[in-house]
Design brief:
Protein name: Response regulator receiver protein (Modular protein)
Distance between the termini: 59 Å
CATH topology of the largest domain: Rossmann fold
Number of domains: 2
Order of helices and strands: HEHEHEHEHEH
Strand content: 5-15%
Number of helices: 6
CATH architecture of the largest domain: 3-Layer(aba) Sandwich
Radius of gyration: 25 Å
InterPro entries: CheY-like_superfamily (IPR011006), Sig_transdc_resp-reg_receiver (IPR001789), ST_Response_Regulator (IPR052048)
CATH superfamily of the largest domain: Response regulator
Number of strands: 5
Shape: globular
Strand order of the largest sheet: 2-1-3-4-5
Pfam families: Response_reg
């Protein structure tokens, strides 16, 4: 079929249709964008570690995983306070900290909410620690960890929600 050149009136008609279609597309994109903003819930977390460098690194990594860090602390006592005040979706908890360790925090957090999502972050590879965490059904993110391992644990914890 050969190309047909349109006349002036047909070009005006097509131009009006294009403008109308463009307006409808823009309106639909705005509605979709507004819906996504309302329905896109970002999960929250707190990070508890006595080393500032570990707090910073894990904060950066969980944000890449799509979590919002709403609190950071340095021991188990602070973990309990932050959990009670902020109600995060997930707690990333170092197990070996001076004064109030991770097990102190787990006990206190479970008294507040026995279905709390807690991820133990530790370099402690002893069978005693792993045994205790396993009996409490707490997943372990072993130091040093990778983005892939972190993302897998985050996904598993949020799917159970």
């Amino acid at each position: 079929m050969p190309y047909k050149q349109l006349g002036y009136r047909e070009n005006l008609k097509n131009s009006a249709q294009i403008e109308q279609t463009s307006s409808l597309i823009q309106l639909n994109l705005k509605i979709i964008g507004d819906y996504m903003m309302v329905s896109e819930v970002k999960h929250t977390c707190i990070i508890i570690d006595d080393m500032k460098s570990h707090q910073f690194l894990l904060s950066q990594m969980v944000e890449i995983c799509g979590l919002e860090v709403i609190g950071v602390g340095e021991n188990g006592k602070v973990a309990i306070e932050l959990f009670q005040n902020l109600k995060p979706d997930i707690v990333f908890l170092d197990m070996r900290m001076p004064k109030y360790d991770g097990f102190f925090a787990i006990d206190g957090i479970n008294k507040i909410d026995d279905s709390a999502k807690i991820v133990a972050v530790t370099a402690d590879t002893t069978s005693d620690t792993f045994g205790k965490l396993n009996s409490l059904h707490i997943p372990v993110l072993s130091k040093p960890y990778t983005m892939e391992t972190l993302q897998k644990i985050v996904d598993e914890e949020l799917v159970q929600n």
